[in-house]
Amino acid sequence: MSTLYVVATPIGNLGDISFRAIETLKSVSLIAAEDTRHTQKLLNHYDIKTPLTSYHKFNERSKGEKLIERMLSEEIDIALVSDAGTPCVSDPGAIIVRLAIENGILVRAIPGASAVSSALSISGFTNTEYTFYGFMPRKKGECIDKLKSLSKNAHIAVMYESPHRILNLLSVLDEVFPECDCAVFSDITKLHERHFRGKPGDIIKLLSNDEYAQKKEYTVLIDIEGAEDTEENPPSYKTEEAMLLDEMFSNDISMRAAMDSLVKKGQNKNSLYKASLRLKEIFRGSDEL
Predict the structure, then answer these.
(1) Is position 289 within any domain?
(2) Element holding 185 (H helix, E strand)
(3) CB 224 within 8 A of CB 182
(4) Of the candidates 77, 146, 73, 115, which has an alpha carbon nearest to the alpha carbon of residue 217?
(5) Strand pairing of 3-7 and 106-110?
(6) Distance in angstroms (rounded) separating the CA atoms of residues 116 and 132
(7) Which of 85, 144, 250, 289 has its CA 20 to 30 A from that of 168?
(8) Are β-strands 130-135 and 156-161 bridged in parallel, bridged antiparallel, or unpaired?
(9) Mind listing the pLDDT tens digit of every residue in the chain (289 residues)?
(10) In terms of residue numbers, what domain contains 199?
(11) Measured CA distances, 284 to 171, 277, 289 (Å)
């Protein structure tokens, strides 16, 4: 009987892979990888010669069906890997796993490094209940609605965010839960791993002064217990960076227009200008601002 192995790979440090994962990748007939070029570096490091095939979010259904057909007709074993961490967790894979189950193919998990569990272990939060939400919606209104729905649960919320959108997420958090406790981790296990703790506004300021902020992937934890949304109470911003980001994304205007608008509302022009320079440094090379 064929087996589909769902194999966790390192989230940054190539040493964070189990012996079982290496043995599995060597023993299967084929490895279905989210990005074959990325996975090839891992295979080269451990002298794994197993052939690769591409399996990503744009071909999940069609490629998944073809791979299942091969497993049934050729009775081969296949390993499924993502670029980092465990497939199917905010990464492609769920469709082929479902297809395998529906066709009577055995599915085995080969566990390994996880950004979620790693971040939780070093967060310092004492609440042991948590929910993983993956990536928040990109549109601000949808993101606000999603975050407000979290207030009904007294637990830790864990989410991922990209380097070009981390300040957007923190800005919305500063609006909805300005007093919530946050723990933000970037590039866990990598060379430039960073930890940021505090209120959303505090972390915006810290990231504004971090030269690596635009080069990292983020895991964000927020302590929902005791956090109150500010629907009835206007947000009390702590940083000019937060004010600028909110003004920009709320009204879909440029940085310059956001500064002018805030000055008209009574904010200090010089402070806003300095904040804009810090934000531009963060977003250098990006079209976000």
Answers:
(1) no
(2) strand 181-186
(3) no
(4) 115
(5) parallel
(6) 8
(7) 85
(8) parallel
(9) 899 999 999 999 999 999 999 999 999 999 999 999 999 999 999 999 999 999 999 999 999 999 999 999 999 999 999 999 999 988 999 999 999 999 999 999 999 999 999 999 999 999 889 999 999 998 989 999 999 888 777 689 999 999 989 999 999 999 999 999 999 999 999 888 899 999 999 999 998 877 777 778 899 999 987 565 555 444 444 588 888 888 888 888 888 898 888 888 778 888 888 888 888 877 765 555 5
(10) 116-282
(11) 18, 10, 9
Q: Which residue has the tokens 């637990």?
A: 155
CA distance 160 to 139: 15
Contacts of 178 (CB under 8 A, 6+ apart): 199, 200, 201, 230, 235, 236, 237, 238
* Whether residue 60 sits in one domain with residue 133: no
State the DSSP code for 85: B
DSSP one-letter string for 244-257: HHHHHHHHT--HHH
Whole-angstrom distance, CA of residue 89 vs CA of residue 114: 10
- CA atoms of 59 and 39, how far apart (whole Å): 17
In a domain, 288, yes or no: no
Place of tokens 């769920």: 94
How far apart CA 172 and CA 165 sit, in angstroms, is: 11
CA 34, 40, 41, 42 torsion: positive or negative? positive
The domain boundary, picked from 83, 113, 143, lies at 113
Residue 219 phi, psi (nearest 5)? -115, 125
Domain end, chosen from 90, 113, 136, is at: 113
Q: Measured between alpha carbons, how far is residue 64 from residues 2, 96, 105, 130 in Å?
A: 15, 5, 13, 31
The token pair at 223 is: 């302590």
